[in-house]
Amino acid sequence: MKGSGEEGQVKLLGASISPFVARVRIALALKGIHYQFVEENLQNKSELLLQSNPIHKKIPVLIHNGKPVCESMIIVQYIEEAWGNKAPNLMPKDPYDRAIARFWAAFVDDKLVPCLRGVFTSQGEQQEKAIQESVANFLILEEALRTNPCSSGKLYFGGDEIGFVDIALGGLSGFVKALQKAISSVLIDEEKMPLLSAWMDRFCEANGVKEVMPDPAKVLEFISAMRVKFTSPPAAK
């Protein structure tokens, strides 16, 4: 999609199977913002990516009228602020509710993501520990769905519409589902986490989300291939 009109020139550097890139694509899709998607080869990063994110040299990077913005949830906040006149609102209007949304988004990145990375890259006892920690964090999110005033009795963490926390966690949902298949283990148990399980299914099927979510087969293929690499014994010298 090509950036034009009131959006200006909008370009997204990313990889279609990345859960972090998915977050940005979801936010852009929900806001109805047209953009050019540039598929990056992470084994041979483009000069544009290296120039746009010289510190971390990572995707995603949003380039809006020539100015780069990095880090997925910072980009989502930027999208909300730069196109605040476009519905839906991805952040609550109330300052306290906004702070709570940022808290839970940070919980996803600071607590859950490292555990999922541990499940992805390890095996044996290390992996079992990472699985247990991941499940514990998902149970905390289940309780947040149940008790948080913004989400209690509502469809999403953000209320009746998808919001900031939904994007933070929902962008990872395709990766989580594929990871469960790859390791033959359950991270989100329907019986123990009925609200979170239903939320994930609802989120993945929502208009504006399902069209830009990573291909499940390709994500599973990527995870399986990388797990072979991570868990194989080092070659003898």
Automatic annotation (TrEMBL):
Domain GST C-terminal, residue spans: 94-230
Which SUPFAM superfamilies does the entry link to?
GST C-terminal domain-like (SSF47616), Thioredoxin-like (SSF52833)
Please provide an example of a Pfam family that matches this protein in its UniProt record.
Answer: GST_N
Q: Does the keyword Transferase apply?
A: yes
Residues covered by the GST N-terminal domain: 8-87
First-level EC class: transferase
- Name the Enzyme Commission number(s) assigned to this protein: 2.5.1.18
Gene Ontology CC annotations of this record: cytoplasm
- Tell me yes or no: is Transferase among this UniProt entry's keywords: yes
Q: Which biological process terms from the Gene Ontology are attached to this UniProt entry?
A: glutathione metabolic process; toxin catabolic process
Q: Which family does it belong to?
A: Belongs to the GST superfamily. Tau family.
Q: Which PANTHER family match?
A: GLUTATHIONE S-TRANSFERASE U19, GLUTATHIONE S-TRANSFERASE, GST, SUPERFAMILY, GST DOMAIN CONTAINING
- What is the name of the protein in this document? glutathione transferase
Whose protein is this, by species? Pinus densata
Lineage, please?
Eukaryota, Viridiplantae, Streptophyta, Embryophyta, Tracheophyta
User: What gene is it encoded by?
Assistant: GSTU9
